[in-house]
């Protein structure tokens, strides 16, 4: 009975992860609570994810990475890019720098720092950012598998392996195979990838004035040309590139083709920003001031600035109205850009997602405040904030010391990372509040909530059942073919759901499969680690893909076209080389 209950909970979790009907951390906590209420796991087992060393280690690494980011150490590294004037060399150096950083620093933090730097450098050189941002994401993922601490997935798999199979990984045990993957990724992106990467234009040029298509909410004021028009006639004088999503009256989307526009209504329009602006002017529509006390000095210079909602941002799940965004940031939101633009509610009532881009109308002096907010990434070409050289250097030394202490075997990586966090606070490189803010609590709760599912799969025999099915399917071809099947299973799951969630599902199966075959489980665990951390074929599979998808104005098909061949190459490489580096 427990087995069927576990499988039912797992199926529900996979459905929610894939459809994104709930946030991943909420799904994970729902999984843990369901298993506890159904009696599949005990209370200590349900709460074991919170005390798991992977959860603690990931939190500590967020703090160490946060110090590097906050004190400007990574910006100092990225400034090298601004001096390069040849596109191929820029791409090569960018990938080399990202590799060096992402091998030890959380890859979403790495991309969050490099993203505005790459945008600034490419715009200054009149290069299309779309030629460089997918490589930025792909390299951050590939570099992350080079070390135990490069990605939370490696730490999670190491923890689960120690608890269930009594084996684990050293800090640099992934490195030999990881370096091969890095080399393959660089070669692919410098050759085939460069031919496949699209040219979406240069921000600031006539062909690409802003990032992608926006949804804008415009006020129908007295004297607007659209008053009295029916829905189908609203955009009669506009171009075909602007679409009317909704007519809002008192905050509610009005229905019916015979509905006539009235003064005071608001129109939700979708299109490229220059087309929306042209339509606004021709139809005499206005941006609603909402709060006129935000105007301040009417003579102050005002700028349009694009800001992205960062991973782990406090804005995620909140609405502009609920946060009093305009008063907090002294800026008005003129447009919203995201993957799915089917919006039919007022913009200030739309819950924000990771990767959303807000087009802000703000005074020039507010830009500095936007830059220091870790919840937003300014996608502009203006100068970055100054680097505190002393603090940046000390933060890098603390990070290096934490890694060195663990690599030398003086203490565990968890202990050294926690000592590093303490050192940051003692040296005042971060204050305690900043340390808490540096942690992406959604990832922590995801890990803590999903770990009990792995325990349930192991405890109820679900992992053994899946392993037997896998062996019946490909086991007679030998352990190498079974290894390829495990890699493919993990890679496929990761394209549509959280990489940590897919790892939790497959690790127990991988261990059970190895036991059934009578071989060392380590090669199968390596396959899961590499497959779960390198997902290239969809923009929703990994947070770094989502970030560059928005900023680079990519299409979904771009990731399929560029990422799918790389996934296949990595599958073949893993199948051939994992048994050589980690014999059965």
Automatic annotation (TrEMBL):
Residues 203-285, 292-376 form the RCK C-terminal domain. It is a multi-pass membrane protein. The keyword Cytoplasm does not apply. It comes from the Bacteria. This is SLC13 family permease. It comes from Luteimonas flava. The chain crosses the membrane at residues 26-43, 50-68, 88-120, 132-157, 169-190, 394-427, 439-458, 470-490, 524-542, 562-582. It is found in: Membrane. Keywords: Membrane, Repeat, Transmembrane, Transmembrane helix, Transport.
